[in-house]
């Protein structure tokens, strides 16, 4: 009796399962339709042509003097910045930049935080 009940339950469970082969799915839906919040803002910025909406790519240093410091964009009052002082250096010199106050790295380059609109 127990084996009969088990077979009936297994047969009923198999009948309710439906499989859709992947070959019938022609196209995945657009990820922008499903994204929300900051992920959606990032996808919309990339669709508009801004491939670096959060300014996470490496900046090339300019002259870096006190009169014309390297400008670092930020939407906040402070930002953590890393400076690779020499070309063959194996570590990064980290420092906090505060808005409105230029700061000098140990290598002598100056950095300044400038305002940027948030994403």
From TrEMBL:
Keywords attached to this entry: Metal-binding, Zinc
Pfam families, A to Z: COX5B (PF01215)
GO molecular function annotation: metal ion binding
Protein's UniProt keywords contain Nucleus: no
GO CC terms in record: mitochondrial envelope; respiratory chain complex IV
Entries under PROSITE patterns matching the protein: COX5B_2
Binding-site residues for Zn(2+), renumbered to this chain: 83, 85, 105, 107
Superkingdom of source: Eukaryota
GO biological process, one term: mitochondrial electron transport, cytochrome c to oxygen
Name of the protein in question: Putative cytochrome c oxidase subunit vb/cox4
Species for this entry: Corethrella appendiculata
């Amino acid at each position: 009796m127990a084996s009969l009940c088990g077979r009936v339950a297994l047969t009923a469970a198999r009948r309710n399962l439906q499989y859709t082969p992947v070959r019938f799915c022609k196209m995945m839906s657009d990820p922008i339709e499903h994204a929300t919040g900051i992920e959606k803002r990032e996808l919309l910025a990339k669709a508009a042509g801004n491939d670096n909406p959060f300014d996470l790519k490496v900046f090339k240093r300019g002259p870096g003097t006190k009169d014309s410091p390297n400008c670092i964009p930020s939407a906040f009052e402070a930002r953590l910045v890393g400076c690779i002082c020499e070309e063959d250096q194996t570590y990064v010199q980290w420092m906090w930049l505060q808005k409105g106050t230029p700061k000098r790295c140990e290598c002598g380059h100056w950095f300044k935080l400038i305002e940027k609109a948030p994403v």
